[in-house]
Backbone:
């Protein structure tokens, strides 16, 4: 088999202010073909097999006027550069002693067909992806047994120190991170009561099948009252994947000294209206703690924690399977379209692009 | 001298929805005269000399529909009951071995001329008020060397663990609590840089005279830019006395892992418009911590900390004086009027009512 000498790639063509677009006059992304460089020492040539789709990617492409680059936890994507994304790929050729042709790797591959990576570059984050037990698809390294599972674990266990017997609420509970929070809370931490919040009755029933005592549909007309009833005298921990109005409601449903893991605020990624926080004074009167965190801060021990997650799966404490991911077979030309599904709220579990 | 047998008292007559009123058709408070009971065992009869005025009092009188009583850190004031307030008084008669006629005491005296108190009742919180060194007025027990000084100390030192060399911003910096935060940060903790935020140029110059490196007027048209410039690459600690829009601005001016002590949110006490929090995502991306606290949680060691505050005053590390309080000589009929000055934003330091 001859090695490829060119690669197609989706580059950032313009900074979106609202929802990104492509294939129109106001394109965010553009498809280009570039020559691949010859491999230097320590480099590997990788073919992209799967791409991870993450809301955080939206933050990397906002107009410079809307972001303060030094406040982003990873640098923004520059105009003309390939759109950044984690992925899984197959090594086609290697000038690095740690990798051989045929190896499966996780890396920051970006939206490209083929990537030449310096295997020691931290920004590339190349790690071997060994086969998973029980016939689990390796795509779970991009989700439940990768970034999203680790986000759930660190947020719940380390950031807010959730303990056995505590009462927990999780928003975005049918999402990639939220569905793992629900399971880690019930199956690993031993929370006594876990309430999920999701965007449809169908998602809610799925979250309950994962072990949540209850899951509430935030689109229901009675949501605010349902949440108050479900929280009773208040909960100890709120794992917040969404920010905005649901966070505001939750401020009024925490116990004294309750802890909130601030993991995401997807409702403001695309410049939508920002709603007032009516219950903010509860932070003071109820002595609440809101703690923001980024999974990247914990990556030094990621391999160890992935081992714990895989162990919990083997012991039946966490269920990982097809229901934890939506793998979308995608033509290279359609990569942005699959990614945009993130913002339609219709996915169950981790959204993975399969090339 | 014959002992009084009756007392006038201001009672809560109706729950205000906006700013409280009195002496109009929509009265919040009403003046009544009640008989005083004879002293039982352990009780003392106290004449009110000074009353403490605190924004938190507003929260105790909101309509039941607007508050969730179990979420208040002290119970609401009931209709027909005397308005609750801390104060300083003189013991006129005692059936309690720990107090004698003539003693000066701190207690929850309420808006009354004379109070019969059970000296052992935690709700009354009766403590002897010994003379202060250096000719300092005992009224400072209601402010700089009492609740507000303790609030400043615990928020800064215990809640967010401010350390020597850190950069600190304080809002409400000309207020009773804020002016102590500025001084404790610079004089006791050893912060390298302290920026105050206050509501007039005059207040700002006073805050700078207390040791702040800079004080910014939030009413200035250039405030947002001034704050950004003053914060440079971000600050470690924000002591938040106000919530609302200034908190929102500060979210964008914190260092990674910055800590915010959430002490107050005066802008929403009177039902004013709640503004959106545009920079909330910085809580996640900058891994910020927002920690609400209530000084009452720390009262077990209050006497010890008051001793440290008095010591810092004696060593010249903290300056306490007339500038830390506004003592308003007030006819009993005008107690609500003096209290309402809290919400006009015109006071410097602790607002004390002198009867």
Residues:
């Amino acid at each position: 088999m001859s090695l490829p000498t060119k690669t197609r790639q989706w580059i950032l063509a313009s900074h979106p202010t609202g929802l990104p677009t492509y294939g129109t006059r106001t394109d965010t992304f553009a498809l280009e073909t570039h020559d691949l460089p010859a491999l230097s020492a320590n480099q590997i040539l990788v073919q992209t097999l799967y791409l991870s789709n993450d809301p955080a990617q939206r933050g990397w492409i906002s107009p410079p006027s809307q972001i303060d680059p030094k406040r982003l936890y990873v640098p923004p994507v520059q105009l003309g550069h390939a759109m950044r994304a984690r992925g899984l790929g197959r090594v086609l050729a290697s000038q690095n002693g740690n990798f051989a042709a045929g190896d499966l790797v996780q890396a920051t591959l970006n939206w490209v067909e083929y990537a030449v990576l310096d295997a020691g570059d931290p920004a590339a984050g190349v790690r071997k992806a060994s086969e998973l037990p029980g016939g689990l698809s390796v795509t779970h390294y991009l989700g439940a047994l990768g970034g999203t599972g680790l986000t759930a674990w660190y947020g719940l266990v380390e950031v807010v120190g959730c303990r056995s017997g505590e009462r927990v609420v999780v928003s975005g509970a049918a999402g990639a991170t939220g569905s793992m929070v629900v399971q880690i809370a019930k199956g690993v931490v031993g929370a006594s009561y876990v309430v999920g919040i999701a965007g449809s009755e169908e998602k809610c029933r799925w979250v309950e099948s994962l072990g949540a005592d209850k899951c509430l549909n935030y689109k229901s007309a009675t949501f605010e009252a349902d949440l108050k009833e479900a929280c009773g005298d208040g909960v100890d921990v709120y794992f917040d994947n969404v920010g905005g109005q649901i966070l505001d409601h939750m401020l009024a449903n925490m116990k004294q000294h309750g802890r909130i893991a601030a993991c995401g605020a997807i409702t403001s990624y695309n410049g939508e209206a920002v709603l007032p926080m009516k219950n903010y004074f509860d932070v003071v009167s109820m002595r609440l703690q809101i703690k923001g965190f980024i999974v990247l801060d914990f990556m030094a021990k990621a391999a160890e924690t992935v081992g714990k997650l895989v162990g919990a799966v083997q012991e039946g404490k966490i269920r990982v399977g097809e229901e934890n991911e939506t793998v979308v077979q995608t033509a290279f030309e359609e990569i942005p379209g699959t990614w945009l599904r993130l913002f339609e709220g219709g996915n169950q579990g981790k959204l993975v692009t399969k090339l």
